[in-house]
Amino acid sequence: MPTAQIIDTPQKAVTHLRGTAVPKILGDFKQAVVGRKVINAGYLTVYGEAYPFVELDDGTFITAAADDEGNGPGVLKAENYDANLEEGLCQTEATAA
């Protein structure tokens, strides 16, 4: 199992990450997604590219992008080392038809 540190509070973000906006971004994102139920997952095709997504029960889509401006798709990974689970949705495996 790789060594990882979970940064899941604005206070930890201030201590461990660069960028003054990061604590607010983390807090806003958590408010939007924590407690929601995942109802769907797949790919959204935009301009000929396939973006991995997770859809939540309130209609929110979480997408994987190469950067914060959405310039190209990224990778969504589901990992649980205790259960020997490592799955991913990535653009390199899917392109829009």
Descriptive terms for the model:
2 domains; 20% helix; 5 strands; 97 residues; two-stranded antiparallel ribbon; 2 helices; alpha+beta; three-stranded antiparallel beta sheet
Our Rg estimate from Cα atoms comes to 15 Å
Spatial ordering of strands, largest sheet? 1-2-3
Bin the strand percentage: 25-35%
Q: How many independent structural domains?
A: 2
Mean pLDDT: 82
Major sheet characteristics: 3 strands, antiparallel
- Could you tell me the number of beta strands? 5
User: Which spans of ≥5 residues are poorly predicted at pLDDT below 50?
Assistant: none
Overall 3D form: globular
SSE ordering: HHEEEEE
Helix content: 10-25%
Terminal-residue CA separation: 37 Å
- What structural category do the secondary elements indicate? alpha+beta
How many H/I helical runs?
2
Describe it:
With 97 residues, this protein is α+β, with helices and mostly antiparallel strands. The chain folds into two domains: 1-34, no CATH class; 37-97, no CATH class. Helices cover 20% and strands 33% of the residues. It is built from two helices and five strands; from the N terminus they run ααβββββ. The chain has helices at residues 10-16, 22-33, and strands at 38-46, 49-56, 61-63, 75-80, 85-90. It has a three-stranded antiparallel beta sheet with strand order 1-2-3, with no helix packed on it. Helix 1 (10-16) runs antiparallel to helix 2. The protein is globular.
